[in-house]
Amino acid sequence: MAIRPILTAPDPRLQAVSTDVEAVTDEIRALIADMADSMYQAQGIGLAAIQIGVPKRVLVIDLDQKEGEKNPVAYINPKITWASDEMAVYEEGCLSVPEIWDDVERPARIKAEYLDSNGNKQTLEADGLLATCLQHEMDHLNGVLFIDHLSRLKKSMAIKKLTKAKKLATA
Length: 171
Ligand code: K2U
Ligand code: ZN
Hints:
The chain is an alpha+beta fold. It is about 30% helix and about 25% strand.
C-alpha cells in the first residue's frame, strides 16, 4: 500500500479524540496496511491512525519484528476492560515525539477487547512491553502523548525542544 507521513508534535491534530470505526471495511483494511507500512518505514513497533492524520480508533503493533519477518496486529476500537493496581515503568519514545525518551509509569497488566481486521471481537490479557505499547497507543486515540505523563518541567522542556526542531526543519 503506501508509506504516509507521520505527524510530529507540536501539532494540534495529535490532540484530537479519534472516533470509533463503524464497520471494518476494505477501506479500513487499506488504512491498516498503510499504517503498517508507515510504522515499519519509521522503525517503530506501534502506530495509531491519528499519527498519520486519520482520527479513527485503529492501532497497529508488531513487537516480533525480525529480519524480513513482519507480523502486524491491528486493534480496532480497542477498550481496556481491566488494569492492575501493580504499576510498571518503561522508557518510552514515540514516532510523533522524535528524539525524546523518558520513563512513564503505567499499569503493569491489562485486559482489553477490540475488533480484529476481519471485524471479529477479540479479547486479550497483556503484560510487559505489549501492555505498555497498547496503553501508549490507546493514549494516542484520546489525543494524549507520553510527554503528557511527565512532570510539568519535563513536558515544557520537551515541547520547547520539539518546537525548535520543527522550526529548524522548516527553515
Ligand atoms: O506511538 C508510537 O510512536 C509507537 C511507539 C511504540 C511504543 C511506545 C512506547 C513504548 C512501547 C512502544 C514507538 O514505536 S516506540 C519506539 C520508537 C520511538 C521512536 C523512534 C523509533 C522507535
Ligand atoms: Zn506514540
